[in-house]
Design a protein that fits this description.
The protein is mainly alpha-helical. The protein folds into 2 domains: 63 residues, no CATH class; 171 residues, MetI-like (MetI-like fold), CATH 1.10.3720. α8 packs antiparallel against α11 and α11 packs antiparallel against α16. The protein is flat and about 70 Å long. It starts with a helix and ends in a 7-residue tail after the last helix.
Amino acid sequence: MANKNKIKTTAGEKIFDTFNVVFMLFIMIICLYPMLHVLFASFSNGVELMKHQGLLLWPAGFSTEAYTAVARNAMIPRGYMVTLFVVFVGTTLNIIMSCLGAYFLARNDQAIGKAAMIFIVITMFFSGGMIPGYLNVRSLGLFDSIWALIFPVALNTFNMIILKTNFMSIPASLEESAKLDGAGHGTILFKIFVPLSKATLAVLVLYYGVAHWNSWFNAMMYIQNRELYPLQLILREILIVNDTSNMTAGNAVDVEQVSDTIKYAVVIVTTLPILAIYPFLQKYFVKGVMVGAVKG
């Protein structure tokens, strides 16, 4: 009886489904191969890698010398510590500033709310520029300080507007009930608005965290002390400036074999934390980007 009720698929539908599967597998391979190429190259022998032509489907002469050089170099762990500090402290400050700004702009009883919003939006299109920003950092005493990587980017206007939109979707009756019970603005914000906006806040944590993790330009302008170099500035020095002397100096490795593969190894080391964290935030990311998409 079950077979009689089964819906039969036509030949055209089977061909269409097969084409979809093959096409999506092709797209997946195209997206995945660059990452696999970097991974395989990082475990390759430098001389064999230079001789290799065509697609790299496995390590060319398996070797871990590149990762040995990375592990022995003091710049990498020090850069990790600086970057982790900037990511955690900077992201925490970003979320606090975004919550405070979004809460103020989302309140309907603020007479200057619309005027403030106009001035805030203007900053998305116009800025003081690089030289005024540099002079501002110097005048505030932040130059060559790790705080120069945090305070100048304490608030992102676009992210604050996203959070403001989410706050505005929270029923006003909840705020009114809290006020009747004697709750102040701090209680309303952190006990009502923030718990009800976890999905959006998770997305903002991802946005801010990735921005801090990938940031190198501010460090290049404001940091002179190499002890305060973040990880991405060290990566830029290796990949763009093509300077691997700090990675091979004092190490018992063949510079010729490591100089190329070490670049791939550093890319893996610097991107692995983000790749490991993203799957845990993906479900919140999908919920967060849908906030405000359906109006009812």
